[in-house]
Structure formats: structure tokens, C-alpha cells
Amino acid sequence: MPFQLKPKLYPDFMGKEEYQSYKSSKILGRLYRHIKDAYDDYISESSELNLDASDINYDADLEVTGSAEYIADAWVKKCSYDGQLIGLLGQYKVKREEEVVTGHIWSMPKYTSRKLGDLKEKLSHSYGAMRKEFRQIFENMDSNFEQLNEDEKNELYERKASAWYQVTYHPKWVKKTLELQKSDGADGVVMLSFAWIAADYLARIKVRCQGTGNVDFAKPVNSLVSTFRLSELLPIIAMTYLIV
Predict the structure, then answer these.
(1) Which residues pair with 21 in a beta bridge?
(2) Terminal alpha carbon distance of the chain
(3) What is the pLDDT of residues 54-112, one digit of tens each?
(4) Which residues have CB under 8 Å from 224's CB, separation 6+?
(5) Is the dihedral of CA 158, 163, 164, 169 positive or negative?
(6) In angstroms, what CA-CA distances link 209 with 43, 44, 120, 155?
(7) pTM (2 decimals)?
(8) What's the rounded Cα separation, in Å, for the pair 164 and 202?
(9) Residues facing 10 on adjacent strands
């Protein structure tokens, strides 16, 4: 478009920068502002909600025999993971864990659209790299691991995944996490995403616990939905695909 024909200002419903926009009196402008105000109010209320320890549902189905030998190491890894995640929250001035994990960020300070987009992209990249690092940590086993057959390997991975789940969700470990944070002078915040780094193995455990036969575990997690109640597998599916 020739420069002389380019508009100096745009109606606000086009979502341009403030200095490029004017308040439109047309129906689209009024509708845009009504929806935007309602959304901002909703986000403001949501950002003030804190997950209480008593709100966390612990699924005993995800406990497996042999997981106890991985608990101590799982606790160390969770402390490291939570510390790095809290660091990302502080660095990018984001309030809640789920914003970083899902990429749906609403609490970041109001920057220009371009800067906000750049920061969100950097945050997403940083968390993606961090999650990849901890997935590699999860998959790292002792030197004898490669000598095992596939079923034996999966059994050990399930024990390890169970331990990671327990140190994240069990009331005993939730309490310990909050106490540790408060001793460091931070507000106690329940953080849950660590467990779902191994969501695929937690799904295997859950399906088996339901007594479902003839399940092909080589298929993606979402293909397991038809084998049992969706409400029981939904958190696993959601965390698998939201944090990839």
C-alpha cells in the first residue's frame, strides 16, 4: 500500500498498538471492548487463585511395587526442577506454573505487542529446553539397563515414573515441598508439572490398573482413551500434549 494511502490510525478492534488506535464507536468496537473487559476481569480473578494443598487429588492407582527405590532420587530431581521453574517465573515476571507449562500466558506485565510476543517465545523455548533436559534425566538409567528386554525396561521406567508422581502429589511430599519453600523465604506454592514429564508411563500404569486387556502401549497416549473412563486419563493426556 502506498505510504500516502496508509491510515494514520486504526479502530481499536483491530488490535494494533495503542498509539496506532482510536476508540471505535461502531458495533464492532463496542463488542470488542466488552469482550476484552470481561476477559481481563476473568484473567485478573484467575491469577489470584492459589491451589491449596488440600485441593490436590492423589491417585493411589499410580503407585507401583518397586517405586520406593526411586523415591529419594525423585525428590532431589523435583527440587531441582521446581527451583528452575520458579526461576523462570521470576525472570519473566509470570505468576503461575500452568502459564509456563501450557504457553497460555496472561500475567506477564503489559509490554508492546512485539516485545510481549518475543518474551513469550523466549519463555516457551526456555521451558521446552528445561523439560527436554528433565525428560533425558528421567530416561537415564544405570549401565545395566541396556541389557534388559523391552518389557523389563518399561517396568523400570514405570517404577521411576511412579516415584516422580508420588513426590509431586502425595500429601507427605506436598507438605515437605511447601515447608522447604517457606524455609527459603518464598511463599509456599504447590507445583505439579514435574510428575507429568513421564506422562506416557503414568498412562500405562493407569490403564493396567483398570484391568484393561489387549492394549497396545506402543500407540500414542490419546489412543488409550477408549479403554476406560476418560475422566481418569484426562489429566495425563492433557499434560502430555500441553507441555510438549
Answers:
(1) 10
(2) 40
(3) 778 899 999 999 999 999 999 999 999 999 999 999 999 888 888 888 887 877 877 76
(4) 203, 207, 215, 233
(5) positive
(6) 38, 40, 39, 14
(7) 0.71
(8) 10
(9) 21
